[in-house]
């Protein structure tokens, strides 16, 4: 990569690429606003945008950023910076410009006029990646809803000049009854998009109801749910595979997994849990996308324990951790019990326990973190024991006849233990299953001696 300084207010970076692949050529733009107090620097955020662009199938030919005291309302960046980017088109031959933030519809149009090329923003790029990776009907519905909700406020009238001509030719200056085709077309587009949004919401609501019925049956089974959460590409899917023996798609790519995947896992003490992999988070995740994936993110809200998986090798590990915690707070699940899992420790060359402790302290992680390598299955036994402890310790097999007057014990068994067989008989509920050891004393009066074989 060839770097050159520009104007003193930012840097232009040109990327050297092979021309054998005919990908759309993209130029990336970011800003650093002093008043924002963001934990991510403009350069770090642009580096992440490069990965997003690569994931979306773009060839990044250059990047630049500008330090500002505030965003410009017309072009988002300063007019001089906009002209500088326009002047680079002859040298870099870019096909589109991607901005590392959300643009308004008018800012996008104004920038396209100056740059004479297509302009998209960070949310639009993320939505495009989600559209590429959505595999299930649910995922496609959620992405399409997010795309339409992003599009609706940005619809532009393509025939506005016809509307003005019609209004100017109307006698008496009144436009009543002589609306031009431009305004009519825009209103028609808005109605069509609005109807599609309503239909998609109905379909997603049906998905939500289906998930709720599934979760209701899961609650009745009493099997605890542990959800994997974390920044995109932290290794959640790899960890799910390593723990449960699943074969979920796991790639070194942003947003490789969109749809939640649940697998059973038996812990060392004999307790069965459900382990759920969820969509990864990212800084400035589009609001429309969070709303559209509500049915999926409800899996996190239903969890008994969260496993916060963090890529400890990433240079922005601290910022990624903060982003995940902020997103969990937005979802109102930040009070749930959580274990911090430091993944990819196999990539830390020559690091000992003390150095890892200092690194974790530098990025303000909880002292009870669990270091693992999902790809090499290191530390997974410790992780499973910690999950067991967080769920209430080891389990013991028990058979009991609980009278109907003690339905509270039946409910507690379903919630805290596992039920292998349940039968309603004359004198109560005959249950066979496992319970945490510390709860056994409550069930001793109702214990049934094991039948001899």
How would you briefly describe this protein structure?
The protein has 453 residues and is α/β, with parallel strands linked by helices. The protein has four domains: 2-129, GTPase HflX, N-terminal domain (Rossmann fold); 135-220; 223-390, P-loop containing nucleotide triphosphate hydrolases (Rossmann fold); 395-446, no CATH class. It has helices spanning 42-55, 79-87, 89-92, 105-115, 122-133, 137-151, 160-168, 181-221, 236-244, 287-292, 294-301, 317-330, 353-362, 380-390, 407-416, 440-443, and strands at residues 2-6, 10-14, 25-33, 59-68, 96-99, 118-121, 225-230, 261-266, 272-277, 305-311, 338-343, 370-371, 395-402, 418-425, 428-436.
Q: Can you put this structure into words, describing what you see?
A:
The protein has 453 residues and is of the alpha/beta class. 41% of the residues lie in helices and 21% in strands. It has a 6-stranded mixed beta sheet, with helices on both faces. A 6-stranded mixed beta sheet has the order 8-9-7-10-11-12, sandwiched between helices. A 3-stranded antiparallel beta sheet has the order 13-15-14, covered by helices on one side. Strand 10 (305-311), helix 12 (317-330) and strand 11 (338-343) form a beta-alpha-beta unit. Helix 1 (42-55) runs parallel beside helix 5, helix 5 packs antiparallel against helix 6 (137-151) and helix 6 (137-151) packs antiparallel against helix 8. It is elongated, with a radius of gyration of 28 Å. Residues 1-8 and 157-179 have low confidence and may be disordered.
